[in-house]
Here is the input.
Amino acid sequence: MPNIRRKQHRGLIGMLLIAVAFTGLQLTAVTGRASPDAKNYLSYALSLSGESREEAGRRAIAYSCDSGQHASLSPVPWTNRKAVGESEEQCVRRLDASVAYWSRHGNTSGMTAPFANQRFMAIFEARPGYPLFLVPFIAVFGITWGLWLAGLVIALAGSVCVLLTLRAAGASRRAGLAGQALYLALPTGTVAMNPLSDGLSLALGTAVVLGCVLLLRDRPGRDGASGTGARSGAWLAAAGPRTGAVLVAGGLVLMFFVRYSQALLLAAALSGVLLVRAGWLHRKRRQFAPVLRAAALCAGLTVCVYAGAHLLGWPMGQDSAQDLLTHHYQRPDLPNPWPEFFVQEGVFWTAWLRRQAASPVLPLLLALSVWAMLKRRSVVLPIALAAGAAGLLNQAGHPNLGQLYGYRLIVFLWLLPALAIPLLLDRPARGASPVPAQPEKVGGGQRDGRVGVAQQPREGA
Here is the structure.
């Protein structure tokens, strides 16, 4: 018993040390993270706080221009926050003039300040979840520290969900901590800290992934849940399919209000991958019902997300294509945008592949992930694959060359290495399967055949 408690304490201490180290590194850049879209979310949050639309816009401009002075002048478009040589005063005058122009040209309503035409700003009006999340942070800590702390909470929450996902799948304590550290070190941690809706959407996505693992696994024994912390270990041991269903449904519902397009793609990718997995298990004459039920749940949520966005009149795929091809609706709509849109797809992905060849960090990590999928048997792997597919689909929906060097649109793809590579730290499971198997006869009798999540050997064994 004391040995188990020592392991639990070591796991908790390791988790806290990783969180403290990440927090310390983020203190080196409390500001300087604002992108052009950050002021839209900030003005929305300030309007929700009770400020007038004009005052919310003024404060959002002040923060955005001040942040730009602390940003690096990198040639990478995503990290280049300001025009070269533009002072803070020039930035404020430029954005004030833009607000005045669009106010005169019809953008006179909504929660966000009129930084662009009303049709473009409707994209941000359809994402109320992130501004609402920011309200208490801004009210208590002010704009600069409030946005920083909100990003820190989002990043750490996502990393803990990754740790719990790996532990729930039967991975060792060191694999879980490695997953937490990878999540924070990879672009997933960077995107989470940026004052944009992508980070909160990603954190909720990790909760959905955790829920899927709980849906598909058998409940592990005490040893399988030990080492993360007494409370979290007990929760993992007790959590079952109902908890998993709540996490999946709740995570996707909250994602709907944060970034509904990503919620739609994640739900669709999960339902597709799980359906294929269920078909494979059926062909192998293994028990496939839990996987099929999870696929049905995700498919139903996919329909609900799409129907909800349609009923609310939020921008859909056609609007996104027109936005790309008309430079944020500043040119007339194309009668049929899809031929040119697919041309842009080809241009983007050709450039993207060249970029990966020149800087092959992601290809190497994906290769390690494939190796993990071939060498390890874990319930988390098909779910991680679906999350990565959701990232690719999201980027495919926005083939904008301005995002070629960025990570935020494709960030879910980085969940695959964060969840798969840590499994290589554990020994391959012998004679165990992450999914229930068909009953088989043993010595004239019959055993249940439901094989729990593979238990890793204890350290020192």
Summary: The first strand starts at residue 440 and ends at 442. The chain has 18 helices and two strands. The chain has a mean pLDDT of 87.
